[in-house]
Amino acid sequence: MQERQVGALRMKRIGRRISILMGVTLSLCLSLVANLFLADEFKIGSFFISFGITLVISLIIGLIVPMKKVNDGVDRALNLKPGSLPAHLMETLVSDLIYTPIITVIMSTVAYFMATSNGAQIPYVPMLLKSLLVCFLVGYVLIFIFAPLFMRLVVGKRAAGKPQV
């Protein structure tokens, strides 16, 4: 029984580490994309504000949503073999649907209020829709590439018998 509890605790730690790595990666990249490609000009202050806000949001999501259980549920519901390419594609889509819209809506809303408080005349809905589309596509690619890499990084350390970080 105690071994089972230790295993569950270990899995939670692994999940938390992966969530933190994914949160930092998504926040950094989506903030860069938003400030480099979606804004009129890149401002370092705006980048840091959006990075900070999105990092907090993604960390909260990562700590609240048990992505392993969600992904296992997706695999079972769609009769997908865990670890297969179709399973990875669907798991990526589900993760992207959980993280990206929340991050993008909040990031776009903050950017909108920052811009309009400085006198800019920007229509909110077109800006939001463009941001959602771009960030959803970028988020999908990031999650598809980095989730398995971070899994190998975190689990690989334990499998190799290296000390815990």
Write the layout of secondary structure elements.
Elements: H1 2-38, H2 44-64, H3 67-77, H4 85-117, H5 124-159
Please, could you describe this protein's structure?
The chain is 84% helix and 0% strand. It has 165 residues and is mainly α. The model is unreliable at 159-165 (pLDDT under 50). Helix 2 (44-64) crosses helix 4 and helix 3 (67-77) crosses helix 4 (85-117). The longest helix is centred in the first third of the chain and has 37 residues, at 2-38. The protein contains five helices and no strands. The protein is elongated and about 60 Å long.
Keywords, separated by commas or semicolons:
165 residues; mainly alpha; elongated
Mean residue pLDDT: 86
Number of helices: 5
The percent range for helix content is over 70%
End-to-end distance? 26 Å
Which sheet architecture does the biggest sheet show?
A: none
User: SS-based structural class?
Assistant: mainly alpha
Shape: elongated
- Ranges where pLDDT stays below 50 over 5 or more residues in a row are 159-165
Q: List the helices and strands in order.
A: HHHHH
Determine the strand fraction and express it as a percent band.
Answer: under 5%
Rg (CA only):
18 Å
The tally of beta strands, per DSSP, is 0
